[in-house]
C-alpha cells in the first residue's frame, strides 16, 4: 500500500465516511495497521456514532422490540454512561458538556453547593395557623418534623423558589435528560421549541409553566425518569396523556403534583414518614411519584377528561395529605410488580387514536387556578 493510499484510508476512517458495508464483504486488509490507529484516536462516545459501527448494527428488517423491560432500560442507562469515558489517559468529560445525561443526585448536589440565600428568604416552611385551627392541629395533627431534618426540608422549599435559567448548563442538562428519557431520543433538543408542547408543557418554553413549583418540578420529573422502574411508570402515564379522548398535558400535570407535594410538606403531612426514615427528600420524591400514580389510576378508571382536571387535582390533594402512608404503600406495591414484570398502569387499554392536540390547545385547570376559601393559605408555597 503506497503512501497516498495509506493517507486516504486513514482520513476516510477518521471522518467516518464509509460508502457501504454489505453482508459477507469485508473491507480490504490494512497491512500497516492504520485503521487500528485511526480507531484508537476516536473516543468511545464517538465510536457509537461511527458509520462503520452504525452499518454493522443497523436493523436490516426494521425489527422493534414489543415490550420494554426494566432490564432493557438498565442496559440503556449503562451504555449511555459510556459517554463520559475516553481512551486518552487523564482525559475527563466536562460536567457541563452538552448532551451528557445528569442524575438526580448530581442535580441535587448542585443546589446543595450553590448560594441559595436569596431564595431561602422567601420560603415559609410551615403553615401559619391561628385560633381553633392551631389548637386542633396541636391536639390532633401530625407530629412536628425533627429538628435535624428541618434544614433538608428548607432546601426542598428553597429549590421550589428557584426558576429555570436557560443560561445555566446544569439546568439545560436536566431538561435534555428529561426529554431524552421520555422520548427515547439520543439527540439533543433545543431548550425552546414545539417539542416541549408534545411532552405536555403549555408553551415552547418550559420555564413559563413552573409557577408555584419552581425548579423542584423539573427535579421531580428527573427523579421519575432516571430510575428504570419509575421510568416505565412515567412512560405509561405519558401514553395515557396522549389518549385521543382522555388527553392531558403530561408535564403540566406533573408540575401540579409537585405543588401538592410541597403543600403536604408545609402542612407537616409528611413529617411522620420523614421522622421514621430520617430523610426528607426521598420521602417527598416518593410522595410525588405515588400521587402521580394515583392520579393516572383515577384518570384512566374513572374516564376523566381535561375538563375534570381542576376537581380531580383538588380531590387528589385532599386524599393524599390525609393518607400519605397508604399512598406510599401503593407505590411500593406497584414498583415491586414492575420489577417482576407484572404491573401495568394502562393494562390493555388502547391509547392510540387521532392525534391529541398540543397542550396549548387544552383548557387545563390546575390547583392554583381553583379558588380556595381556606384561611390556612392552601395554595401558597
TrEMBL record:
Signal peptide: none annotated. Residues 1-15 have a biased composition (Basic and acidic residues). Residues 170-324 form the ELMO domain. Residues 1-30 are annotated as: Disordered. InterPro entries: ELMO_dom, ELMO_domain-containing. This is ELMO domain-containing protein.
Amino acid at each position: 500500500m503506497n503512501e497516498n493510499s495509506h493517507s486516504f484510508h486513514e482520513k476516510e476512517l477518521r471522518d467516518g465516511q464509509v460508502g457501504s458495508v454489505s453482508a459477507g464483504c469485508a473491507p480490504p486488509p490494512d497491512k500497516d495497521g492504520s485503521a487500528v490507529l485511526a480507531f484508537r484516536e476516536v473516543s468511545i462516545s464517538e465510536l457509537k456514532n461511527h458509520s462503520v459501527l452504525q452499518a454493522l448494527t443497523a436493523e436490516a428488517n426494521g425489527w422493534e422490540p414489543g415490550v420494554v423491560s426494566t432490564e432493557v432500560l438498565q442496559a440503556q442507562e449503562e451504555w449511555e454512561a459510556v459517554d463520559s469515558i475516553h481512551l486518552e489517559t487523564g482525559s475527563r468529560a466536562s460536567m457541563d458538556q452538552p448532551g451528557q445525561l445528569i442524575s438526580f443526585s448530581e442535580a441535587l448536589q448542585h443546589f446543595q453547593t450553590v448560594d441559595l440565600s436569596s431564595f431561602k428568604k422567601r420560603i415559609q416552611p410551615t403553615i401559619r395557623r391561628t385560633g381553633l385551627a392551631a389548637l386542633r392541629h396541636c391536639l390532633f395533627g401530625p407530629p412536628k418534623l425533627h429538628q435535624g431534618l428541618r434544614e433538608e426540608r428548607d432546601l426542598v422549599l428553597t429549590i421550589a423558589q428557584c426558576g429555570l435559567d436557560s443560561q445555566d448548563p446544569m439546568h439545560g442538562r436536566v431538561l435534555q435528560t428529561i426529554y431524552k428519557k421520555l422520548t427515547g431520543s439520543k439527540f439533543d433538543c433545543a431548550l425552546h421549541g414545539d417539542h416541549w408542547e408534545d411532552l405536555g408543557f403549555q408553551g415552547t418554553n418550559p420555564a413559563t409553566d413552573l409557577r408555584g413549583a419552581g425548579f423542584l418540578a423539573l427535579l421531580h420529573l428527573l427523579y421519575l425518569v432516571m430510575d428504570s422502574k419509575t421510568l416505565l411508570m412515567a412512560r405509561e402515564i405519558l401514553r395515557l396523556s396522549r389518549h385521543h379522548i382522555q388527553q392531558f398535558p403530561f408535564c403540566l400535570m406533573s408540575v401540579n403534583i409537585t405543588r401538592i407535594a410541597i403543600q403536604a410538606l408545609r402542612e407537616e403531612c409528611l413529617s411522620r414518614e420523614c421522622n421514621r426514615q430520617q430523610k426528607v427528600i426521598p420521602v417527598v420524591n416518593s410522595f410525588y411519584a405515588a400521587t402521580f400514580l394515583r392520579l393516572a389510576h383515577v384518570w384512566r378508571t374513572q374516564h376523566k377528561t381535561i375538563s375534570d382536571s381542576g376537581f380531580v387535582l383538588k380531590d387528589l390533594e385532599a386524599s393524599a395529605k390525609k393518607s400519605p402512608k397508604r399512598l406510599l404503600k401503593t407505590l411500593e406495591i406497584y414498583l415491586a410488580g414492575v420489577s417482576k414484570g407484572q404491573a401495568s398502569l394502562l393494562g390493555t387499554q388502547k391509547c392510540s387514536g387521532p392525534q391529541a392536540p398540543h397542550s396549548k390547545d387544552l383548557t387545563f385547570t390546575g390547583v392554583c387556578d381553583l379558588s380556595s376559601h381556606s384561611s390556612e393559605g392552601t395554595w401558597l408555597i
